[in-house]
Fold:
Amino acid sequence: MDAETRGAIAEWLQSETGAEKIDITGTKLLSGGAIQENWLLDLTIHGGRLDGLKQAVLRTDAASGVDESHGRVEEFRLLSAGFEANMTVPEPFALEPTGSITGKPFYVMRKSDGTANPRMLTRDASLDPHRTGLARQIGREMARLHRIQPPRPDLDFLGDAPANPAAQRISELYGFLDSLPKAYPALEWGLRWLELNRPAPSPAVLCHRDFRTGNYMVSDGALTGVLDWEFAGWSDPLEDVGWFCARCWRFGSDEREAGGVGSRSDLYAGYAEEAGAALDWSLVPYWEVLATVRWGAIALLQGERHNSGAERSIELALTGRKAAEMELDILQQIAEIERIRANV
Structure:
């Protein structure tokens, strides 16, 4: 980030926060932003509501994105809703919605300490004494999120809540697959199974829809921030639970069925403790299948961006290859569900 841009952002942030003086003394592009860019800002702030703050994070669009993701204006409103619901999220400070300063909309938020690296979170033995508490904390965070219910005028960009979230997700996924240049029978079969086994709908709540290991920060064994709200929307609360527990997001630590970091029982216990009641946990395997089909479809869509020549990228090409793993997972997951049913 050049000096002129830093100066313009500092001047804007000074006006937004009532500071007497703000200097941005350094910037660093943080890793892990394929869809959005996150810049660490080193700050000197005198006066105003951020007086003495040393660091913050600026979030803006990356060069490439995903059509289904929210823009920064919408994401700022979602983050604000989570913060107001007492979730552990980075405090949102200020939004620049016009793109007049840097050429792209952005917002500035508090920096969360720790790491979001999924390989470390799922495999580092130093976290083992903390895994029970971490899984329970994540469950509590989901329950706080799911207290946010429609109608919410501040979240009107999300549209009407679906009467049947599972049916809507299945329809969306058929659309994704139909847009691809060739057929993927295992994913289509998985979708048809989801259609035939669809559970009765629950009232829709605000769901993160990408709540997984890699999208939250952890420091000293405790969750310090839920990140990346660009796919949030109204849905069945079990969509978040199924996405978190799906094998594709355990990063090889399959024995820890809650995101590769802890046990289902601890995740569920934390949720029920905060919500005051349990969800129907027997339906989680259904939503795990939906999560696997969804990730497989997303992987193929990302891979097609490379294959079509529209955006040559090794990362996109490798993402597309993940779909084959999801196809195998779908077959195995459904076989296990059907085996358990047959033995009941």
The longest helix spans residues 314-343.
